[in-house]
Amino acid sequence: xxxxxxxxxxxxxxxxxxxxxxxxxxxxxxxxxxxxxxxxxxxxxxxxxxxxxxxxxxxxxxxxxxxxxxxxxxxxxxxxxxxxxxxxxxxxxxxxxxxxxxxxxxxxxxxxxxxxxxxxxxxxxxxxxxxxxxxxxxxxxxxxxxxxxxxxxxxxxxxxxxxxxxxxxxxxxxxxxxxxxxxxxxxxxxxxxxxxxxxxxxxxxxxxxxxxxxxxxxxxxxxxxxxxxxxxxxxxxxxxxxxxxxxxxxxxxxxxxxxxxxx
Length: 263
Prior knowledge:
Elements: E1 7-16, E2 19-28, E3 31-37, E4 40-47, H1 52-62, E5 72-77, E6 83-88, H2 92-101, E7 103-104, E8 112-113, H3 133-145, H4 148-153, E9 157-163, E10 168-173, H5 176-189, E11 197-201, H6 207-215, E12 220-222, H7 229-238, E13 241-247, E14 250-255
Parallel strand pairs: 3-6, 11-12, 12-13
Antiparallel strand pairs: 1-2, 3-4, 5-6, 7-8, 9-10, 9-11, 13-14
Helix pairs in contact: 1-5, 6-7
């Protein structure tokens, strides 16, 4: 896929050992995506103008506004890519809760969620899904090595869903929460089951990142960085295996380690 259309060049002064040189650098495009639900504007999100259909579906399902891909009657992305119109059967209480709570998340880009404060009762995740430690370490290497937009700009986050058969679905965005929503949305659009999968994310494992896995019944989350205390508590409460500092030959398993074979 050609990602060059999401890149913008800027002229900078690059300082090396007190010597300045004019230099052309590469930055990532950032746009405001307007999401309309059943004809009404629902929210605006700053993001990379890519995978907008998946972004809309992933976000609405993460917030429990839409409970199933089958509830969507139609979805249309505007020609300029800055508007998504969704016609769907919705959970009105979840939609109003999103408007009411306005919880500003710690994810990059200032995301908003209505589920972070425990407004929904989600069953404890008892999914019998196991993975080998070496598979986690192998996949985290691939995860970072194949992050094209990050390698070009150093400015994006990535999410990857590792499925039961070993296939992966990935997405990149300026916001960690956006990247997760896009990856999940891509799975939903392709009819892929995520209940026996692993979510790999870049950046810290904060509570709202864990909450997205909770909402989609994803049993394992992995990052090469650290979790927050509330992230650990959220994972423990909901039966999620939370793995941080996965790098080299090591990893820290913070909750529900039984899903990692040999532990």
